[in-house]
Amino acid sequence: MSVDALKSALPDYAKDTKLNLGSVTTTSSLTEQQLWGTVLASALASRNARVVRELAEDAADYLSAEAFDAAKAAASIMAMNNVYYRATHLLSDDTYGTLRAGLRMNVIGKPGVEKVDFELWCLAVSAVNGCGQCLDSHEKVLRDAGMPREQIQEALKIAAVVHAAALTLEGEEALAPATV
User: Which HAMAP family does the protein's record reference (predicted)?
Assistant: First the structure.
């Protein structure tokens, strides 16, 4: 199992990340599609090739082809939206927040999976990318659809742990002595 490969690759000082990676992928109250779509979308948002490869391998065992593509689409659309909406929120001139974005976001309306699952994946990616405006928007849609806060929190924990694993492995790679 690829989660196990990632856990094995994490150094001893990252024991908490290793333990958390195991628990968020095995003790979830999310559906398998919600869980593994969140894992995959978060891995893609982490931008770590090894984490993406390892977790995509596991996700493929639980996701249909449509759900796998939808998780990738969530990571892609939120990469754009998180930058745009975070920037308009951070600018001192509030007028930017009132202007029409004019960016295509058709996949949000027709993601190819249940809307609540896609929104959950968008929320997780927004957490990794640090966009408060997108987090608020997706959390509201999820809550309005009846998703309990505890399940929304699970997606946030998955995003946090996957991102921590990605950064830890990147740091280890950067610190490793160069080989000739």
Answer: AhpD
Q: Which residues of the chain have pLDDT under 70?
A: 1, 179-180
Choose, from 44, 131, 135, 169, the residue flagged as catalytic.
131
**Three-state DSSP class for residue 177:** coil
Our answer to whether residue 122 is catalytic in this structure is no
Q: Which helix (H) or strand (E) holds 170?
A: helix 149-175
If we measure between CA atoms, which residue out of 101, 68, 95 comes closest to residue 83? 101
What span, in angstroms and rounded, lies between the C-alpha atoms of 131 and 81? Answer: 9
| Model pTM score | 0.94
Residues 6 or more apart from 75 whose CB is under 8 A from it? 40, 41, 44, 45, 121, 125
| CA 37/CA 118 separation, integer angstroms | 8
**Catalytic one of 134, 152, 162, 169:** 134
Q: Which residues contact 152 (CB under 8 A, 6 or more apart)?
A: 120, 123, 139, 142, 143
